[in-house]
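chain below, 453 aa
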Amino acid sequence: MKLPSLLLTLVLCCSGCSWFPSSVVHPITVGEVELDPPTLHTIGLSLPILDGDQDFDASVRVAYRNVDSETWKEALPLQRVRTDTLSQTVPTSFPIAEQFAGSIFDLRPGSAYEVRLTIEDPNGGTTTRTVRAKTRALPRRAPQSPRVVHVDSDEALSDALAQARPGDVITLGKGRYRGPFHVEGKGTEENPIVVKGYSREGTTIESPGAEYGVRIAGSHIHLEDLTIRSSIWGIAVTNATNVIIRRTHITDVSYGINGRVGANRNLYICDNRLEGKGVRWPDTSGRTWNYEGIVVNGAGHVICHNTLAGFGDALGLSPPGEIPNRAIDFYGNDVLWGGDDGIELDYSERNVRAFRNRLGNVAMGMSFQPVWGGPVYALRNTIYNTAVAPYKLNQEPSGFLILHNTSIRAGSAWRQYGSSVSNFVFHNNLTIGTDKAVSVIPFLHMASIDYNG
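prediction:
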C-alpha cells in the first residue's frame, strides 16, 4: 500500500506549519473532572488540560455505569476543544479553557452514575479519572406541603401572586383573565410555587398589546395548564432558577418564550404548544428571521416535546448573558413551519445537545453559527423540506458532532457556504436531495466525514 508513505509525506511537508510543534512534546497532564449542570437524560463533563499534548494526539475514552450495576457501558469519547480554531467573527465574552469535553446520553432521570475516563497519550502512557454524577429528577407534580389558593378574578390572581409563598398552588378558575401578570416569588425544591389553570384551553390570560402575558422572575416556580394570548411575547423568564413551564398554549403572539434575560438556570420548558402570527410558510425572507419561538441562554435547561409553528427561529440560543451557554438539551420537539432556523445552536460553548427533534418547512434545519469550542451535538434529528439547506455552518464554528440525522429536501441535498469549519464529525447521516448532492465549500480543518448516505 502507498497510503503510509503518503501520510509520511504529508507530515514532512507540514513540519513548518503553525500547528505542528517545534519543540519537545510533553505528555499530557490533566486536572480533575468538572461536571456541568445535569439534565434529565444527559451528563456533561469537562477534563481540564494543565500541560502537554502539544501535538494534539491524546484521547479520552468514556465508560459509565449506574451505581447499582456492575456493568460498564461505553459512551462517545470526549472531544478535544481546539482553542486555536475559535471563531473571531463573533468572539465569546468567556475565555475557553484547554480541555476535553463531552456528554453521556440516554440516562435515567434522578439516577446516580459512576463515570470513568481513560486518558491515553502516545507520548506519556495512560491515566484514569473517575467521578460520580447524578441526573436531574423529573419535575414534581405537586408541592410536598401544598396550600391551595383558588382565584377567579384578575384582582384575586394579582394578590395571590404578590403574596405567594413556598407550597402555594394558585389555581385559576375557568374563564379569561386580563394580564399581564408577574410571578416573582421564591419557592423551594420540595415546595415550589405553582400557578395552574383549570385546563389548558379552559383558562386564558389575555394581554392585548402588552410586552408579555406572564413574566417570571424567581426560583422554583411552575406555570402550567393554561392559554396565554394576544401579547407580543407570551412569557418572559428573567434571572430565574428551576422554573417549569409545561402544558401551556401560547397563541396569537409574535414571539413565544423569552428565556435570555439575566442569568437563567435549569429551566424546564416542555409539552407546550406555541403558535406565532409573524410567519407563514413558505415565506422565509429576512423579515421573518427575528420572530423567536423559544429562546434561552444560560445553563442546565431542558426544552422538550414542544410543538411550534409560525416563528422565525423556532428553538434556540441567544448570545450568552452573565454565564456561558452550557448543558442545554433540546429533544422531542416538533417544528411544523417557520421562517428561518428550526433549531439555532448558535453561541454554544459546550455540551449543548439537540436530539430526536423533527424540523420541517423552515429555511434551515439546524444552525451552528458559531460554536465556541464545543462539543455541540446533533443526534437522530429528522429535517424535511428546508427552503435552503438542512445545516448551517457559518461564522467559523468549531467543535461539534452531527450524527445519525436524516434530512430530505427538493433540489441540492446540502449546499454549504462560508469561510472555514473546524474540529467536527459528520457521521452516519442520510442526506437526501432530488437534484444535486452535497457541496461543502468552506475550508475544512480537522473534519471527519464518513459513513454517510
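Residues 1-22 have pLDDT under 50 and may be disordered. The chain is about 5% helix and 50% strand.
thats it, cya
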